Input
Amino acid sequence: MEAKLVAALPDEPGWQFEPKWDGFRALVFRDGATVEILSKSGKSLARYFPEIVAAIAAIGEPHFILDGELILPVGDVLSFDALQARLHPAASRIARLARETPAQLMLFDCLRVGGDDLLSASLSARRAALEGFFGRHGGPAVLLSPYSADAADARGWLERSGGALDGVVAKRIDEPHRPGERAMLKVKQHRSADCVVGGFRRAKDRGGVGSLLLGLYDEAGRLNHVGFTSGMSADDRIALAAKLEPLIAAPGFTGKAPGGPSRWNDGKESEWEPLKPTCVIEVLYDQVTGDRFRHGTRILRWRPDKAPSQCTMDQLIHELRPAELAAIA
Output
């Protein structure tokens, strides 16, 4: 069951609100001695998280299906980058990472316990079963996501997390689990950053600008490439090219720079044009991983009033801190 993106949380009764955790969605199956962890796409995650498999195998109930999120605390943050590092072909590396930085399973639904199939049960009944399961088997590796029936509480989670929480999910308490449907609602954090346009890639078909390459200054004064934005109309792409071409000058980025065609991307990554660091643009982004925007961004506005030197890395909101989990709950 997935969620549909909406602009605001419902305020009427009959809804349950939960934090939207920034990890790997996971369905956990236990059938006797067999433990399986599946991603949203149906691919097995079990070999990448042996510590979670061990924790599930140690539970004293032989048959259950749980829905949750794999999260991974590193230091004082929940690191999506560290989760991605687990998707590695070498079993020895996975085993080492599992020892050094163990993952956790954040539970938010229960689809079967023992002989009870809960798919057709209401969310309130499934939550009661989940809380009973967690009361018997919760621990350091198996956590229970908080919830509230009050939309004001959910909005408070977003405010108190300082923008680090990915969002909030709303679920109808009287509805069954609906696999494959967008039967939940989600509100995501709106995060913005003022970035220097350090370069651009040209459009391959109609000409003009294909994407703007975004940069932020670090403490040493180096302009680092942090992502891109490409949501422009065809007319805007042509106009932008005319505006930016007079500003073409190396190096563009003085710290981390964008890549170009290589054997790693099969030549699909186009060359880019470096620019004098004079243009500033405000963009909307969702998450940050490794000091970069994880996905493409959306243009909010150009900022001719903003000095490029003011566009620094400290604008970025990183992963949620585990210490904030208690505050959210």
